[in-house]
Amino acid sequence: MSRKFDAIILGAGAAGLFCAIEAGKRGRRVAILELSDRPGKKILISGGGRCNFTNIHCTPEKFISANEHFAKSALARYTPADFIALIEKHGIPYHEKTLGQLFCDRAATDITTMLEAECRDAGVQILVNTRTKEVQKTTEFIVETDSEEFRAPVLVVASGGLSIPKIGATSLGYDLASKFGLKIVKTRPALVPLALAKKDRRAYCDLSGVSAAVTVFTGHQSFRESMLITHKGLSGPAILQISSYWEKGKPLRIDLAPDRDVTSAIREAKTRNAAAARAAFLGVLPKRLADRWLDLHEPKSWTNQDLEKLESDLHNWTLVPADTEGYEKAEVTAGGVDTDELSSKTMESHKVPGLFFIGEVVDVTGHLGGFNFQWAWSSGAAAGRAL
Ligand SMILES: Cc1cc2nc3c(=O)[nH]c(=O)nc-3n(C[C@H](O)[C@H](O)[C@H](O)COP(=O)(O)OP(=O)(O)OC[C@H]3O[C@@H](n4cnc5c(N)ncnc54)[C@H](O)[C@@H]3O)c2cc1C
User: Fold this and answer.
1) 2 torsion bin: left (phi>0), alpha (psi -120 to 50), beta (else)
2) What is the best residue among 18, 46, 126 to mutate for testing ligand 1's pocket, by most ligand atoms within 8 Å of CB?
3) What does pTM read for this prediction?
4) Looking at residue 1, what is its pLDDT?
């Protein structure tokens, strides 16, 4: 015996829930199949438990994709203002933290409670503890789970990326895309801390916990935010952002004192010496990092030329990270279902009518700051309105 619906959605994460609400409101009989014991688990752990649910400065440049234009249509048709209106309708208190990032005042459960209530009102059935094992297509889609079989003319894959396997990430979406002959842009961990090579780890990682305001560069990309030293390498917003662009084997350049001229104070000091240098660096870097930097970069003498080099080294710390810290620590998975395969208006596959991909499984990856959830809401809405 199989259960029949108008549409089946695989995954009750941000994108799947949102798509179901939109489709349910249009009278479709929708079931969401979710492998874990509750919907929206990633929403609950997001934003340090407060869910950075959108960003008011949501422009297409905040998204990485092989096709930089793909996300524009969905983002324009369901905007941060639309999501804010929904939050306000439910009386959820929120605030802007910095750089347009909106967080719940109380907790991320406000968001999951809201989405579950909207699902109930729209008549959506959420089936938890229901792992999708196999999908077949005849005249309709047949989904085999651990317990039951489901059938529908429409299937939406909203099963997310590979990040954080311990809360339910699986390769289901990519496996299904391959099975149905859709191209995939190679996946990689993104918004992820970077592990330093042994030599650099030995030199800096005992400073774990120290942070500094930096600008970090790779290729043509740069981010000016804070950087945190960890026991394995580097993290903090600047590093998480650049990690989405960094390619293994390529160098990172870090300006440890953006827009500052540190050595002028040494030049002007009564005596140019290590004490004057330490005093000057302390005004710019946290004490432990200032001390360590000078221990490792102290000039042979205090000539103008040596001071120039000291200044330049500080603005051009160049290192080649050993690797990222992998999917276990990554906030998102970059790459995914090739956008050439999908309609930018509806997220439906060109090759397989009735098959949709939304959210993180698609090759659209937001910067840090609420953009990934906005993509989940916008792509979910685009598909939900087309079912
Ligand atoms: C620690 C952390 C913090 C984050 N904080 C933020 C933030 O503050 N703001 C922001 O914008 N983004 C944040 N993100 C990113 C954001 O959570 C994701 O981009 C977003 O959740 C993607 O939504 P999705 O619906 O595509 O996938 P997911 O939310 O991952 O949902 C996919 C669902 O599919 C289910 N599933 C997988 N395989 C199967 C299967 N075989 N059968 C049935 N179900 C299956 C999973 O259990 C999951 O519930 C954070 C991510 C992490 C890891």
Assistant:
1) beta
2) 46
3) 0.97
4) 77
